[in-house]
Amino acid sequence: MIKLPRSIIEGVQAAKQPEDLYWYLQNAVELEHSTIPPYLTAMFSLKPGTNDEIGRLIHSIVMQEMLHMAIAGNILIAIGGQPQINTDKFIPKYPGHLPMSIGGSDFKVGIEAFSKPLVEKIFMVIEEPEHPIPVKVLEAAEPEFATIGEFYDAVKKKIVELGNSIFTQPKEKQVLSWFSPERLFPIVDVPSAVRGINLIVIEGEGTSTDPFQTPGDPAHFYKFGEILHGRKVVPDPAGGFAYAGDPIPFDPAGVWPLKPNCKIADFPRGTQAHTRIAEYAYAYSNLLNALHTAFNGEPGRIDTAIGLMYELKMLAVSLMQTPLNDGSGMTAGPSYEYIDRLPV
Amino acid sequence: MSYLDVPRLTFTGFFQADVSTINNGTGYYDNDAFKPEFQQLGFDGSWNPEGTAIFRLVECTVTGARLGDRDITDRAQDPVIGMALENADDRVFGKLVDLDPQQQMVSQIWGMRLRLTDGVERALFAGDYAPAAFINLWRRQQRGVQGDQTLAAVYQSVLRNVVWQGRSPSKVLEALQRASEQDALSINMNVYGFGRNPAIPRYTMGRVAGVIGPYRAGEPKHFVLGRQIVAQQIFDSSAPLAAKNGVFTFQCKVHADRKTVTADFGNCLRIVDADGALVDVGPLVLAVSKVPVDSVLTSVAADQVAVLGNVSYRDAYWYKSTAGVQEFDYSADPWSVAHIGERPLLLLSPQPDNAYKVLVQESLGGLYVRADEYVYRLEPDATGEVALHVTSFGAPLETEIALSANVGAMGGGGGPPPPPNVTIPDIATPDSGVSYPDSIKSGPDGKAVLKVKAGRFDPPKPRGYIAGQLYGIGYQLAQQPAQTISNFWNFITVFVYSPTRPAPQPTWLADIQPILLQYGNLYPIMSKHLVRLGDYDSVVAHLDILRLAFALPIGDPNHMPVTRDLSDGDRALILTWMATRGADGLPLKGQPPSPAALEAVRPQPAAAVPPVAVDLAPELRRGKTGVITEYLARRQMKGKP
Description:
Oligomer: heterodimer
Order of helices and strands of chain A: EHHHHHEHHEEHEEHH
Helix content of chain A: 40-55%
Largest sheet of chain A: 2 strands, antiparallel
Radius of gyration of chain A: 20 Å
Mean pLDDT of chain A: 91
CATH architecture of the largest domain in chain A: Up-down Bundle
Strand order of the largest sheet of chain A: 1-2
Strand content of chain A: 5-15%
CATH class of the largest domain in chain A: Mainly Alpha
Number of helices of chain A: 10
Number of strands of chain B: 34
């Protein structure tokens, strides 16, 4: 189970005023973002026309992570905070720890091509719910650690405690497009904030009795379980749930052989790999810049950010087809470095 | 004012033009004949089938500047040296787009925003590059690796909506901001050394050497209102697009106030290879003829010219620090001071016996007419206004301009051979597609406006499987010296969109799929990796992003289609279809059109051109070299020299 230091929860609980929650909500934005680069890379590494169902499942998870990032950002905006998105610190150092030391000191997340071990050892660990449905045996959580669910629960309780008066900002500052209004709605008071947090937790973890966030749509952990086990999760006639539904085929040949955890500096200037990876990181940085502007007073700029997301996908195609020509048979992979100030 | 004024700064580096190569073949636009293998890398020389159309500057830095009468090459002289000229940092990259498979010689940059950064300020200035097509394409590069594009060209435009911010101690930037008007800057880019071979590091990349200077409102944006030196270009298969004496067309500006000529040699001197070392042809001299000239000169005696100075192209850092722009001070020569405004400029090569070989000379009589913008996309029945400027030795001239059809190298198969049983449509037909007067007059300010009216095609697609039609309008002075050398590239390209068949309730099968399938075929970067544009379910699944992109204005970098070749009517049709939902809550799928209806929408080309043999390696057939080689082959077939 993914864990974070209990001191984080205690920090939330000790908050006296909305300003005291800013750091935690900023970390929530960072946390929701932090899984997107590894998930996205795994998705991009699937060759078109193969592994389509796996691609669709990961895509649905990535979309929800984006939604959760937007909700957390909107809550922060609603109580007077300013999400900081376009900084070097916003992005985890892959391979490295997730925000708030989530997962413990030995849990590192990298940027890699899709593989079943990646799904099992990293993605399912990230998404493991507080109370998983017993589809598999789990170790007990250590008492000094808390779960992401507990973290959000503490934030929710604190918002309830601080009351409606902390929602001081006009809803026009919030980013509210590109998702249905049932899932991305203005955060204007305690009930709307609670509803938003509940949505983050349920879409990520499911409920404590059911792996589905909505009927037919499993929570993230179980979607990754489907990919790992190659079958859809369905109710088991004998009771409970089983990965025994329609097959989800995986063709290992349908994955670009990316070198894991590429950085721009790994490649000599003037090579195709350097050109392409620098281009990708540049576009990714532009995306964070556009998002930052959108979440800091110009929500209309989200359209530009959406355009950049599609551009990233296109850039990933040429990047992942660029051979390294180092005898490894591998191709270049994406880098999620923030290009702030250029080396001159 | 322009980049040929002061202050100005030079930038050098690389550009990436990640253009796609399937749309180079006219025949590939025929949906019925399209096969999946056309999308494979290497198919019939297709060297970048999954190109993204991105155009961007790469590792461009300021490598020189001119402030007052000083050349600046070192950061100790001014901190502008070493600053980076970068792409926008908050939106997608610009795009490079061919107008049409049958007019690939005016590829335009769209949606590019540039910024200058010193590593501290994100943008000391930033501005939007006004869409521009290249011009003055010629065989500049003498040697290349396999697949190299040995042709070079120029992009001249302006940066608009320029915003200055932050503080820099640079005097060059301070002066540049002060000298500029209307939040605009003039920008010129010489592009060369483009690599098309997927196996080389330079794949999709080329070199750029450019200049940014002030811009003054009301002046042309895409050329300099100055002195035009026009070279004769070779149009036969021996050395297609080479310059006759090895030096190509260039422009100069005479600054009478400070008795200086600024000449731009950035795209007129040959280079050895893609790295851009200039071919050493011995000393080159810029001079003014002391006698009137009414013919093409081959040589002049030393006493017939006033020498302005040597071109410094043999100095090691000259091109990198100036991009070929050089000033010649003639204040010490009273004859030049008195007469430079009435005698032609010459570029000379010193010969023994006190004589000079004339490599290239100013247009006869100093006469020049030029359309500022030369690519027009016109909706049915719309009127385009073309701004033309007439000068004599750089001064405005009131005179008559004659207009006639001139299609340049347009038409044909676009390079690769068409698929079996696909005919290549003819262009510029029917005649009624455009109308314009036979002549117009420039005013005392030398300006004229040509109104070009588009027709409304019936049947709507004269080219059958390709929407729209191409026309070319040539212009010249009604009275011009007999031996006048015209610049081959100086004509107006007009693309007239096909009218959209009215459909109050458009459906996927009858109206939308025939349009989008073609884009899906031609641009697999979209159809393989983002949205299968020929597939109803895939399009419906991406409705929101498609609706945004199709609704964006043409100048937006996210505009769809990237190629900017879909009419307003067709885009409105698509948007209407997206917004009209059936009982299932989804856009209408409808029924496939009957064969008769299909024929009405997409007939065979009204006129076709015969196939022609092109003797060129397959990868060279995709792109400019292929187009010009086919053009020459067609010319020869018609019996022209």
